[in-house]
Amino acid sequence: MTNGKESDGSEDAATLGVGLISVGWMGRLHTRAYQAIPVVYPELGLRPRLVHAADTAPDRAAYARDVLGYARASADYREVLADPEVDVVSICGPNHVHREIAVAAAEAGKPFWIEKPVGRGVAETAAVAAAARAAGVETSVGYNYRGAPAVERIRELVADGTLGRITNVRSVFYCGYAAEPKGALSWRFRREFAGSGALGDLLSHVVDLVQYVVGPIREASSLLSTVYTERPVLPMGSGTHFAVIEDGEMAPVENDDHVSALVRFADGPHTTGAVGTLEASRVIVGPQCGLAIEVYGTDGSASWNFEQLNELRLCLGRGGPNVGYTTVLANASMGDYARFQPGPANSMGFDDLKVIEAKKFLAALAGGEHRNATIYDAHQDAEVLAAVAASAEDGRWHPVSTVPDAAYGRTPHVGASHA
Known about the structure:
The protein contains ten helices and 18 strands. It is of the alpha/beta class and 419 residues long. The strands form three sheets. Strands 17-16-15-14-8-13-12-9-18 form a nine-stranded mixed β-sheet. Strands 1, 2, 3, 4, 5, 6 and 7 form a seven-stranded mixed β-sheet that branches. Keywords: Oxidoreductase. This is Gfo/Idh/MocA family protein.
């Protein structure tokens, strides 16, 4: 990072050199999130500068330079990591390159923000965590749904005991991106490139969300299923997993379309005996991006669904003439809502959650509060997913190994400043 007076006469700000690896949809979102930081969070005193982007597709590399505004573009991610002007790196490539690139970033001493799942399984995720720990670099992982104002509010209600003792949790991620049988066989459907299917792609978000809101999962039982066993082939680097191909060459789907799990949570101040049901599907008909969480306690309950991002459903108390749910619109008392909108019913969106994610990463990097999801949290999530996968194989309950550095076992932030 370098310090310098901005030409518009603003206060001194630290210039942060940004490197980007993979210039797809998520890479563009990371870029816009960095660009929003000085506007949305000026108190951080950081001004990200787009320095170097890499993508193996020439047109995407050119887009990074000519449209997004990166000073340099390359075909090889190693050039980004070797660039002395790059202070932080966003890793937004497909799952199968995450371990290689993240380990290389750590060894190059570059703090990194990486999308999930970090690895194609627990071994790859653990390898990245080990490299980050050895290098002492700050990390952040793309669990953007944590930043939804309603999610932050539910987390507070759990932590301060407002909902009483948590008895059960239900969380699902129902997506329809693969509901079309002629939907393309992208890399997401092949073990070599994606590892698992809905398990790693979608249930990883569910697992992270419930552990962030409620607490660590300690045991799991599950089943997996594949609904469409063949799909038309889509060449790597072309189209997306939303593409539909008529009369294409068919090839096998190699991973799961649907996953269901029963879980038990670790005992905590408000979670003794808490259990949960977790589910994810990429072939559901109806929901399109239906990540939802319902938390039930002895004194109340709360629920949220990403498809109604700006609404919290809340019930407090067990009786009375008006018992039942109240819909609370997101407002300035919830999370970082006030950074984006002036009052209730002014809706936030997906991209705003990436800005919050970027802020948490950069705040931790600058020595501030650590509220970001780290590689160690991702490792703990991967341990849960490993237990889920093992249970699907043998039909038994499997314990979840504990990652000491994961933040889930710590006291959640209650009443924290959202400045």
